[in-house]
């Protein structure tokens, strides 16, 4: 059943998209939370209906600036319901639909919209729907590569799973997913445990998920844990663990042997990590809530391996969080860059002499990656050697943008 069907016969799908957009752009909710709320309110929808509403909402957010200016509305204007319906109608024209008969779309001039779309499509910052400041920053930091990078970041992301090697392997997971009517998956040669879905599916309802056979994790994100080169029996500290995606991967690479101490400043995320660890059959993780500097001091000189997956701008994951383009600003980027330096300075001492540390960010900016490592080695890290750096680029790897550096403490 085509998406066109929902336009012509199910206006409540369009109304649901409208409500989600109001939540995102008027109430400043995160797009994933706004869509999740819509799905909870419409539990009877089938997978096609859910995909339609989710995909169209995300596409409008992803192309917000282009759609808004093509509808004749200023980007920073206060949104009325009429203007939001105009924007929604403009997107439908933009995506090649014939507008359904509806009072909501009265007054929309389709020929004029197409003319405006053609005009604005020639301007990168409008075509890729990014704020002026971000276009300037991207060009400054990435130069001639910025055009390809931002274009790649403005595409729909694939769903990628990480096979839990404690319980299965990528090829076996493919077979199990096919049995659960999720066919057309593929392996990613440069990410050894990754399985990519050709079509978006709600994998969280599968038996394979409930058995802990996989986690949802992008291919480039999986390479961070691989880069740390952990071995069974090691003592490892994941200092910015969050809800534990990389922690669980580290545990599987260590074959559930050794010890992982997962730290975070948000206790709620550590509780989620514990639930995920139980499902994945991970038994070597201890969580510690960072409620004071004493937590870090007690770990000084103890870790064979240290992972610093630091807070960052998130510009490498714009494909998944397109609304963050409009929530970010230059002041926030400068703030997180200071936090990154503080973490490097205060946490690196957890690594014992002869141990290794990975610094990682899901950012495309050298100022959050290579330049931070250069600063650390010059200002703080006289006891460290840089063993290597890697970048995973959206335009080259068709994955989230990630930077990672591997360092060894020598004295």
Low-confidence stretches: none
Largest sheet: 7 strands, mixed
Shape: globular
Strand order of the largest sheet: 7-6-5-8-9-11-10
Label the CATH architecture of the largest domain. 3-Layer(aba) Sandwich
- CATH fold field value of the largest domain: Rossmann fold
Measured as a percent range, the helix fraction is: 40-55%
Count of domains: 3
Individual helix count: 20
CATH top level class name of the largest domain: Alpha Beta
CATH superfamily of the largest domain: Vaccinia Virus protein VP39
Radius of gyration: 23 Å
Summed over residues and divided by their number, the pLDDT gives a mean of: 93
Derived from helix and strand composition plus strand pairing, the structural class reads alpha/beta
Write a structural description:
46% of the residues lie in helices and 16% in strands. The chain is of the alpha/beta class. The protein has three domains: 3-129, N-utilizing Substance Protein B Homolog, Chain A; 159-216, Alpha-Beta Plaits; 219-409, Vaccinia Virus protein VP39 (Rossmann fold), CATH 3.40.50. A hairpin with a 6-residue loop joins β2 (185-187) and β3. The longest helix has 18 residues, at 330-347. It is globular, with a radius of gyration of 23 Å.
